[in-house]
Amino acid sequence: MTDLADLTLSEATSGLQGGEMTAVELLEAVHRRATMTEAQLHAYLNIDRPGAARAAVAADSALGKGAAVSKLTGIPVALKDNLVTRGLETTCSSKILAGYLPPYDATVVGRLREAGSVIVGKTNLDEFAMGSSTENSAYGTSRNPWNPERVPGGSSGGSAAAVAVGSALAALGSDTGGSIRQPASLCGIVGMKPTYGLVSRYGLIAFASSLDQIGPLTRTVTDSVTVLEALAGYDPADSTSHPGAVPDFRAGLERGVAGLRIGVVSELSGEGIDPQVQAAVARMVTSLEGEGAKVTEVSLPSFEYALSAYYLIAPAECSANLARFDGVRYGLRRDGDTVEEMMANTRAEGFGPEVTRRILLGTYALSAGYYDAFYGQAQRVRTLILNDFDSAYGQVDVLVSPTSPTTAFEVGARATDPLAMYMSDVCTIPSNLSGHPGISVPVGLDDAGLPIGFQVMAPALGEEVLFQVAAEVERIAGFSERPALANSRADI
């Protein structure tokens, strides 16, 4: 008998709407899986059992009435803990927001509730989404369900681990430099970053506002489409929200890739990429060519500078955004003899070392005499990257690369080497700088039994062709392996 916690979102939707199970039964299976795995994984900061139970009962009531319901009705979904959630502690995995209970929902959370989703709880992340391993959380490190001695990636590592192990059927993450796609790659699931502005950022506690984007983590490409359909669309509460039509994400899922032009990014292959990762990507490219795609190698020379530009732009924006955490209105407060001393004491205790490092770097880059040399120059590089993308998309329909240069590394292996940690995002950062969509699809395991992700990138609002190629990659790969911890069966 299949454990309900091992169903894909689509399978669960079919079962719920066909009367084969109830939302309460599905939630109970997910809760049992969490009970069996959380001691090793620490994917969650907070599991809202009473709230989820109420939502599951409401979903069963809607399903029982026979009226039209959403594909997400009754589906257990986890939320990264930088999405404000009414009445649930939202901390960004930082001491400075300990005890913060938001009085409102982020737009994406509200849309999930309207769709009938069951919010399981809030997942762990690198503090304020600053990291690539989920080791920077003030509340403990998350682990990879394929091997708990390895990291799950970051910063959405808790969300990725929860979906991979079955303590949620889908999750939301945020992607500033790869924080959805990289942990999806390391945990063997699908992670998707939409076009900037396609999904509202209202209620996402900001890291770098020109880079942040919310997206789904799921087990399949079709499930990713289902979640994104619920999230996407204009939101007047977000001034950067796209006011135009939402692409038809589902239109190309069955089309295959015959006739499509696929570009292999030469700067994201070879040196710096693990040989097993490179080999898996090369095999998939060959298979896509065998299915009728026209494959060509594409050079984007400005990608060489993407990492450097990102680590000036993102810290500069975080320096401005995190100035709001001052101990005055919410969260942690440490007193002092003056207002300035109170703020200094609060921030010194509230912010962890990685967040402090990036605030200092960003403040320096924005300071008088250095703004043009650092932040201004980084923005010019950003324009070069966008121009390179535009030129490439004049030649090809999509670009492909590894998602992560390596598979999951050991906990602690890069904790004292920020530069090595930052290199984890070298393949994903360009799409954040350009605002374009990207997706990671699992295509196999390395010799250590760790997942390898294949990244597909598309031009702005090119989600239809992005999902078209991703669906074919998924079909060819036939990746159905499950992590060992997912064998903590709830029905035996």
Could you tell me the CATH topology label of the domain at 4-255 and 471-487. Answer: Amidase signature (AS) enzymes
What proportion strand?
5-15%
**What is the second-level CATH architecture of the domain at 4-255 and 471-487?**
Alpha-Beta Complex
Order of helices and strands: HHEHEHEHEHEEHEHEHHHHEHHEEH
- Uncertain stretches: none
Overall mean pLDDT stands at 96
Measured on Cα atoms, how large is the radius of gyration? 21 Å
Query: Given the C-alpha coordinates, what overall shape results?
Result: globular
Largest sheet: 11 strands, mixed
CATH class of the domain at 4-255 and 471-487: Alpha Beta
Structural class based on helices, strands and sheet pairing: alpha/beta
Please describe what this structure looks like.
This protein has 492 residues and is of the alpha/beta class. The protein has a domain at 4-255 and 471-487: Alpha-Beta Complex (Amidase signature (AS) enzymes). The chain has helices at 9-17, 23-41, 49-64, 107-114, 157-165, 181-187, 221-231, 275-290, 306-321, 339-350, 353-366, 372-393, 418-422, 429-434, 463-477, and strands at residues 44-47, 76-80, 118-123, 170-174, 190-193, 214-218, 261-265, 294-298, 398-402, 438-445, 451-457. An eleven-stranded mixed beta sheet has the order 1-3-2-4-6-5-10-11-9-7-8, sandwiched between helices. A hairpin with a 5-residue loop joins strand 10 (438-445) and strand 11. Helix 9 packs across helix 11 and helix 9 packs across helix 12. The chain is globular, with a radius of gyration of 21 Å.
